[in-house]
Fold this sequence. Notes:
The complex is a heterodimer of chains A (386) and B (220). Chain A is of the alpha/beta class and 386 residues long. Helix content of chain A is 70%, strand content 7%. In chain A, a hairpin with a 2-residue loop joins β3 and β4 (104-110). In chain A, α7 (165-202) packs antiparallel against α13, α12 (267-294) runs antiparallel to α13 (298-320) and α12 (267-294) packs antiparallel against α14 (336-346). The radius of gyration of chain A is 30 Å and the shape is elongated. Chain B is 44% helix and 16% strand. Chain B has 9 helices and 8 strands. In chain B, a hairpin with a 2-residue loop joins β7 and β8. In chain B, α3 packs across α4 (89-103), α3 packs parallel to α5 (118-132) and α4 packs antiparallel against α5 (118-132). The longest helix of chain B has 16 residues, at 148-163. The model of chain B has no long low-confidence stretch (mean pLDDT 83). At the A-B interface, α1 and α8 of A face α2, β4 and α3 of B.
Amino acid sequence: MKAxxxxxxxxxxxxxxxxxxxxIIPVFGVPFLMVFMxxxxxxxxxxxxxxxxxxxxxxxxxxxxxxxxMSDLNFDILETNDPHSLLIxxxxxxxxxxxxxxxxxxxxxxxxxxxKTSEFARIRLKKILDSFKEKLFNExxxxxxxxxxxxxxxxxxxxxxxxxxxxxxxFLGTVFGFITVILMMTSAMYPAIDLVTGEKERRTLEILxxxxxxxxxxxxxxILVVTVVSFITAILxxxxxxxxxLKGGILIEESISQVHIFKAxxxxxxxxxxxVIIPFAFLISGIEIAIASYARSYKExxxxxxxxxxxxxxxxxxxxxxxxxxxxxxxxxxxxNIAITIKKxxxxxxxxxxxxxxxxxxxxxxxxxxIYSVRTFKKEKVIFRV
Amino acid sequence: MVFLFFVKEGEIFALxxxxxxxxxxxxxxxxxILKPDSGEAFINGYNILKEPEKVRKSIGFLxxxxxxxxxxxxSEFVEIFASLxxxxxxxxxxxxxxxxxxxxxxRYSKTIIDKLSEGTKQKVLLSKIxxxxxxxxxxxEPAQGLDVVAAKLLEEYLLKLKKExxxxxxxxxxxxxxxxxxxxxxxxxxxKITYIGRIEEMRDKTGKKTLREMFLxxxx
Lengths: 386, 220
């Protein structure tokens, strides 16, 4: 068995595709993508903040101060009787209609829903108008000789304290569960194909099966090696994502980025995550090896394994959705249960019963995948299909 | 497939047949890779169904050039397979040194197999067998993809192994190779052995001169 494992590891670790999927993508690809995407998002937000927005003003009654304020605050003003049409034609970013009923001014802000520039223009405009309204309010009170503090019965303040860990876990948990299960699947794919279909194609499987090792040891060593590759990918992904989120400061406030990684994730949490990842790595490995056993060529194996990508991505995406309340039944669904367990553990919302449902169901799935894989590999009609 | 044949100890037996005749399937059954639907076979006195582990320890199987791990070095390749045959590390190292020296591939021992020439690759495959030292060799189209020089080298080594007492079963469609190497020839067609005999006997029976002509005559 030791010799077989040595052979499988040497063979797999010298395959560039395995190295790319197992090491390069988790260690460099994922952080690069996050830094790159984070950078683009930050730049885009900054640009929107600096932008000179076009405002269409329809003054049913004159309100001179409003126009003066907006001119001073980097808005292009366009007088119009129909801001709706201009907005739809995108000739303006936001519109305001000024009217007066009785002795009160009514200001209506018109903007395009789900239009990023229009939304940002609305936010900036509303902030300015709110502040102007407050200023006028205070002036009127002063005219009447009333101090604002006299009118306020009590002061209400909110002070939210971030634990650091929870905040960190929120970001890490949301992305980690999703990314990890997908990378575990893709990294196991190439070694599974190479160690089964590749060996069939190169006819090395025959010298292996005719050697004293025997078919059981041959298939078990292959499952173990693919499992280890998938597991290493998971470890590298969590380390790389943690470092990117904490040290890279991507999407994280300054104070939070100071939190040290080992303070952010406890040994207990690492144990909980790894305890569910190990059977999942076996499950992925077993299924991929079984499917690869049916293929006659490398290309055919890739085609047969492509649907598996969707079978993993869809439940993994489901875990990503913030609005879903997961019931205990969700923790029985393979892939999804791993992604949400990781998410919950890192977000500090870990529930013991849900963890055990995930762990036990994955041990069950692991055994099923293991038996299925061994049986498939031992079928002569499958392994020597021509 | 229904047939009966014996390979004598220390002889080279060549299995000839057209594509799809069942040569590879026969060899796969004898090497325990496939199970027969019915019947029995013995290798080195061991039943392939009842004692497959002992059978596997008794054989060295070569599926030709393609049966090499291209990402391993010759040293790693032979070490791993010798370990599977249960040899101790010190014995493996000793034999490896001797075999590599005799085949002239010592300087390539740490080179990735994929970078070696076809002839050297063939020597690596041979070294696997020589180090493990099983009494029975089974070769499926061993000269496939080899150039004339590499094929000649293989043939010389097989004759040398025969002299050392190895029993060799070879499947080939290269008539010249079978004629040069084989003590006896078996012709297989559509899953049945249609003829077994020495080349002289084949010549007497068919009245043909070349093995190619004899083969075609006996195939009918």
